[in-house]
Specification:
- The chain has 180 residues and is an alpha+beta fold.
- The protein has a single domain, classed as 2-Layer Sandwich (Alpha-Beta Plaits).
- It is 61% helix and 16% strand.
- Helix 1 packs across helix 3 and helix 4 crosses helix 5.
- The longest helix has 46 residues.
Length: 180
């Protein structure tokens, strides 16, 4: 028969593994010397953008990541660490929420993380937060695709108008020649 502590650690470990494999990525944030109200505020802000905060002992987190084949956690797990699990496909909103909150609350430390299988550092998270929202990027992409098409259609329209004007001028000349 297993001890209750072992069962709890196994349950937490299995839950974390399940959340990480189903997520878009995860980010590590330090919350050393942060009060409970601030931690709950960031937790609620992240929940609104499709992410959740997971707090567990660093040794347990390290074991879970080792089991998942990610051994490059150096620098991520020091002092009190929370894992932000990104469930939404819009990773930029999550990064923006964390960076904005860290500007207001200096006790929050951005350490890095993983997006899918790529390891990223704190600077990359800050850079991602500077990107425009998904809707703006999609609008820019559509505009980039539509712009050459609009130019092509405009050119073709102008060529057709020139052709019609030429035919009209030829018709006017023939009408004058027929009457004269």
């Amino acid at each position: 028969m297993k001890k209750i502590g072992t069962l709890i650690r196994e349950t937490i470990s299995d839950d974390l593994k399940q959340q990480l494999t189903a997520s878009q990525g995860c980010l590590f944030i330090g919350f050393n010397k942060m009060n409970a109200f601030s931690l709950n505020t960031i937790r609620n802000n992240l929940k609104n953008v499709g992410a959740n905060v997971f707090v567990a002992k660093n040794t347990l987190v390290a074991k879970v990541f080792t089991d998942l084949g990610r051994n490059e956690l150096n620098g991520f797990l020091s002092q009190e660490t929370a894992i932000v699990i990104i469930n939404d496909k819009d990773i930029v909103r999550t990064c923006k929420t964390i960076v904005d909150f860290s500007k207001e609350n200096e006790a929050l430390a951005i350490r890095g993380g993983f997006l899918k299988d790529k390891k990223i550092n704190a600077q990359m998270i800050t850079d991602l937060a500077k990107l425009p929202p998904k809707e703006v990027l999609l609008g820019m992409a559509v505009s980039g695709i539509a712009s050459p098409l609009t130019g092509f259609i405009s050119t073709m329209n102008q060529m057709m108008l020139n052709f019609l004007w030429t035919v009209e001028e030829i018709r006017k000349v023939k009408d004058k020649q027929g009457k004269g």
